[in-house]
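Subgroup meeting minutes
Present: P.N., E.W., G.H.
Scribe: E.W.

1. P.N. recapped why we're keeping a running log of single-chain structure predictions: easier to compare across weeks, and new members can see raw inputs and outputs side by side.
2. G.H. added today's entry (492 aa).
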Amino acid sequence: MASSQQQHQQQHGNYVPPPPPAAVCVTKSVSVYPKSLHHHHHNPQQVVVNLSNLDRQCPMLMYLVFFYKNNNFAVDHHLSDDLDSVFTSLKSGLEETLSVWYPAAGRLSPNGDHGKLNLWCNNKGAILVEAVTRAKVSDLGDLSQYNEFFENLVYKPVFNGNFAEMPLVVAQVTKFGCGGYSIGIGTSHSLFDGPATYEFLRAWSSNSAIKRTIKLTTTTTTHDHHQLHKPVHERGGIITKSSPNNKLARAAAIDHLYELIKHAMMIDRNRGGLPEMGISLNYVLKTYHLSGAMIESLKRKVFDGQAQRRGNFSCSSFELVAAHLWKARVKTFGLRKEAMVCLQFAVDIRNKMEPPLPKGFSGNAYVLASIALTAGELEEGTHEAIVEKIKEAKNSINNDYVNAYIQALEGPQGNLPPLKELTLVSDWTRMPFHKIDFLTGEAAYASPLASPIPQVAYFMQNPSDLRGIDVRIGLFPQTVAAFSHYFLTNLQ
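Output recorded in log:
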């Protein structure tokens, strides 16, 4: 992990990545098919999974890179030398996994009736790539900080606009000069959301030959004891059937977003379409490590007073850090006090629906909750007041909200413009990806690459501090110093 100097630099937002290491050379690329074909109506190629509008929002690949250092291989030393063995084990594990998670071997294709994407389970397979580099994992510096070199550790299929040709799962295993490995995995967001991706990767890990061999030869067990559920692949039907058609219901996130976009378009017209002076639209990905001690310190500082004396106020680390981040990000931009600002965060609806979605639901099961204030109200409001609004927004998610949200996505979808007034947060703290042991132990780090909406703040578990939160966020280069100052205030 990071040195003390690197940790000091990253907390103050001025971490400088090391120079780029050696090149990555691809040595093998194969298609991986289910070990046993899923039979449905006597013809697996006729299975069509009808997607919901939640699945269709972002049909692009989302990438995650797992890093395994060679000191993880104490149980099985030959792993550091035998790339072919690792590749073969991952391939056989993926074949086994695709037999159960069979939609992952399919392709997206537009429906002939309405042109919307559905999931065709045609067993066209996933892609697995083998690569080598002379670089050492240590050359990459602090693995929690995004490094452009990470882009070389994933396989990016050529996309010509035809989704029927794009694989839904791709992976690249790269052996480093030090004997360590990275496993870069891309999964279509139309295939899985975060929790479903986590379950799929855990299933793949548990099916790999390496994992099975070690289970038989040692008494060590994985730290991730979470039970694997058999996946449920039906999508749109389950969600829409769970939602009564209440035309009076509104989805606050959609309404707020329309208001922000309308306001941004008015400002853009007033400027004659010219970009705002001094603003670069190239995002810099930064990771801020908030230790458990820092979060507890913030709780004491912001709630030390009336709320604490009452003894009846409590909040989660997510709620507190989200409120703190929202205040810091809006203050960074120096928006007018009367400007409308929004905090939107993903809410898992698996247990919010009535009845709840079935255990193992493998599709996209999240909507955005939303809070809207003026910039002045946000700046003057206490952390406690903002946390209460976050709780209210979270509790507002029910069948009617989900139905309204899905209905609002019926229309044509465009790319979300960069909005200073909109703060987006996604909570990954309940998905400890670093604990997925594809090889012989936990990953040193699991790093997401840039998402299609890079300004989203991802809250992730830190491998060395389970009570802490790593916040990965995309920032404009000229705002990094100011955001770092405001965000880390009260945390030191």
